[in-house]
Amino acid sequence: MYRTIICGIGMGSRETASRLLRRAAALVDKGGSLVVMHVIEGIPHRHLTELPEEFETTAIVDAEKKLASLCKEMGVPATIEVRIGVAASVLVSVAREKSADLILLSSHVTDITDYVFSSIVDKVVRHAGCSVLIDRRPDPAHEGSAPQVEDATLF
Asked: Theoretical Cys-Cys bridge with 4: which of 8, 47, 81, 100, CB 3.0 to 4.6 Å?
């Protein structure tokens, strides 16, 4: 069991998010802490001035509400953190800040960008100072099909 778990919830399906949250809740020690993280990335700083001022705030609040709702529905007590940045770096940084002893992530269907840029999971595994557990069960929507570009919304 683990004292502090960072559970990274990405852009996958609600089913994947629920599965990760169930696993994290089962692995956290009694009295331990579970931090459910989502990182909003992909906004080049040069474009931030072109976006409405409230874009970041709205995106953060929306993701926080969705994650809090999921945790409440599942009866899983957790701290919700949504940040903007490079997902792998933010996850590793938060794990250090919180002295986490586990980061729980889900893999996705590999596509060409993973080979060129490396995946978030690969980067976290290489740079994390704690254990990393990777849920490799594919999303049903992607099973047996070609990789698809994911929607830009959190489940």
From this structure: 100
